[in-house]
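Our consortium's second objective concerns turning raw sequence data into structural hypotheses that experimental partners can test. To show how far this objective has progressed, the report includes one record in full. It was chosen at random from the queue rather than selected for favorable results. The single chain below, 330 residues long, was entered without modification.
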Amino acid sequence: MSGAWEGRRVLVTGAGGFVGSWLAAALADRGARVVCLQLRERHSNIEVLGLKDRVEVVYGDLVDIELMRCLVRDREIDSCFHLAAQALVGLANASPLSTFESNVRGTWNLLEACREAGTVERIVVASSDKAYGDQDTLPYTEDMPLIGRWPYDASKACADIVSRSYAHAYGMPVAVTRMANIYGGGDFNFSRVVPGTIRSALLGENPIVRSDGTPVRDYLHVDDAVAAYLTLAEHVSEDGVRGRAFNFGTNEPVSVLDLVERILREFGNPELLPDVLLNEKIHGEIDRQYLDSATARDVLGWESKVSLGKGLARSIAWYREHFDLIREAS
């Protein structure tokens, strides 16, 4: 939508992270005045993507309700993307209280600040495909119940419900994204399969598969994810969009082992082989997850445009170009 972001005052929470930084960059490219909330002062993707002089960075915690009120009110925020979360399943299992504080309380604090300010016209909240939990039928569709049982899954389900409650109870322009596993350049969480495998291959090491390799997932390139956020926000005030959740995926599920082997083929080194650590499922991990994105296509006109092959090629090229950052993280 041409000109949809020119001059808008946009808050992006979690902007120092992988997806949030690419979203902040896209908004800045479109002429928005972007405020990035970052938990603490540290080197982040804001520096990696060259955003430091293009956005305003505010350091603080979502659980600080007074900070959120001041931030939304004083910056006269009119659009908000809420991506900040404790996003690691293993850490969530180990530290459930901090996960619920960040992912659930942080969400209602932000929404309450937006409600009180009365100036915010667009709010998009990031949920997750994991909010659906372990379903008997796949792919996930938006009319399925949210039955996430593990701490991370439950926290995203709660935040999802709270967000839609604010839309229905107060008429606020809120909608929710439930996205597949997002990958692409700039993800430095090397415990994730795509960046971890690429890093290992660039270092000439066998990549580690932290499962038995059979879990099935849907992988969405970050360019598609950013397009999904922007598209949903541009339609969020419309009847039939406000207060709803939308799936965003590729409808091309693949197993972890197949994905790793596909990445290795891109490197063309037959000596590199996946090191499969387990012969059983990982405790707390859902075995099969993938989404039906037909509603996003029919209602929003959004479709994934980056195939898995193209997305992996883009990702590998990005990490090759930024190999010095990989060595620093090794």
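The partners drew two points from this record. The longest strand covers residues 33-38. The two ends are 41 Å apart (CA to CA). Both points have been shared with the crystallography group to help prioritize constructs.
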